[in-house]
Amino acid sequence: MFVLSNFISALARVLDILLNLYMWLIVIRAIASWFSPDPYNPIYQFLIRITEPVLGYIRRFIPFRMGMVDIAPLVAILVIIFLQAFLVQSLYGVAMSMR
Asked: Where are the domains of the chain?
């Protein structure tokens, strides 16, 4: 059981890091959109490709915009924070209970 506990704990840590990284990618994309970046810039294209599946999905269900402000990044960040607080902490709890 000790090995399985360590595996679940490591999985929770990796998931936490990936969610945190994805949240920062969304923040960077939102900030970059304020400056009308070059759409042919490879870094900006990468940001679009990596974040648009989630943001597009959110926009499909929540088409609400506050003026010119897109709230999809805010909703995505709140979902990521919820996943970090619920899913990651639950995995840590399962790992600790197995020890």
From this structure: 2-97
Say what the pLDDT of residue 22 is: 98
Estimate the crossing angle of helix 42-61 against helix 72-83, to 10 degrees: 80
Helix (H, G, I), strand (E, B) or coil at 66: strand
pTM score of the predicted model: 0.88
State the maximum Cα–Cα separation within the chain, in Å, rounded to a whole number.
54
Does 91 score more than 80 pLDDT? yes
More confident residue, 17 or 33: 17
Question: Residue 65: beta bridge partners?
Answer: 70
**38 dihedral zone (left: phi>0; alpha: psi -120 to 50; beta):** beta
* Residue 53: CB atoms within 10 Å: 9
Nearest alpha carbon to residue 25 among 53, 58, 51, 52: 51
Orientation of helix 89-97 relative to helix 2-33, angle to 10°: 170
Q: Distance between CA atoms of 13 and 47, rounded to whole angstroms?
A: 24
